[in-house]
Amino acid sequence: MNLRRLGIVLVALLLSFGAPGIEPAQAQKVAPIPFEPGEELIYKAEVSRSLLKKVDVATFRFLAERERTTRSANALSGADTNPFALKFTGDVSSEGFFVKLFNLRFHQHVESTVNPESLAVQKTVKLDEQGKRVRTSEANFDQSKGTVVWTERDPNNPSRPPRVLSADFSGAVQDVVSAIYYVRTQRLHLGDSFEVPISDSGRVYQVPVRVVERKRMKTALGRVTAVRIEPGLFGEHGMVTAKGQFSIWITDDPRHVPVSAQLKGEFGTFDITLKKIGNQKNQQAASASH
User: Fold this and answer.
1) Does the pLDDT value for residue 139 go beyond 90?
2) Among the ranges given (77-86, 262-271, 280-289), the one the predictor scored with the smallest mean pLDDT
3) pTM value?
4) With CB atoms 3.0 to 4.6 Å apart as the test, which of 106, 107, 223, 231 could cross-link to 129 if both were Cys?
């Protein structure tokens, strides 16, 4: 697996996609959101390889917020005049053992701005740090025209021309962070299979997804019933052109909280587990009252 794609895969480990039985062009509205503004999800990633014991290699943080928009921003994205947008932030940072194991220090920070009604992505801003290599990028989605324009820059070399790619899409498209929140608004039924468009780095991929299992399991939320989803990220035409297997468990309740995920690839087996769920808004209010 290409090391540059490893970061995308690790972020995508906590993602699932789309709505079974609903074509993207029809997915104009979503159910009431099951997460509150300020919700924060914290995960730990472990790796096992050969005889190596499982050790922590990365920390994931996801935050859902609401922010005020401007008319110009709405016009650019082809959105309605809703004065607020939802902002989803995903952040993953490597820990000490990951650096030793792969000789790679890794950090990726993604901010996804979405329409609060359809959850269609409007803008994606990304910081990607892998060792000395640093890239910043921004993708702007024009829903009225069905186009995305992605621009990547090298902060270490400002004179270098930016890399620009564009692609067409139809219906509601997601990015690697907005997808997790979109799926939490949907009904997931055992045995369903479907495809969802997801945009990354100026390209749009048709990601096949299967809902393959349902069981009781022990999690940070206690014992819950969860469903296992398998997005097809790997393959010749996939987001990652290598062999691998990926699955994610999501609670089978109105909150649809992702509680664990697993990636099997050439680097070993990565297990990502929910460790904590909180609300920054409530924490800030509590701090201000003291």
Assistant:
1) yes
2) 280-289
3) 0.80
4) 107
Q: Three-class SS of residue 122? A: strand
Nearest to 52 by CA among 7, 13, 97: 97
3-state secondary structure 36-101: CCCEEEEEEEEEECCCCCCEEEEEEEEEEEEEECCHHHHHHHCCCCCCEEEEEEEEEEECHHHHHH
Question: Cα–Cα distance between 177 and 147 in angstroms, integer?
Answer: 19
- pLDDT value at position 103? 64
Residue 281's alpha-carbon distances to 39, 164, 276, 284, 287, in angstroms, are: 8, 37, 15, 5, 10
Degrees (nearest 5) of the Cα angle 127, 132, 135? 25
Query: Tokens 């469903």 correspond to what residue?
Result: 227
Which pLDDT value is given to residue 2?
46
**CB-CB contact of 257 with 16 (8 Å):** no
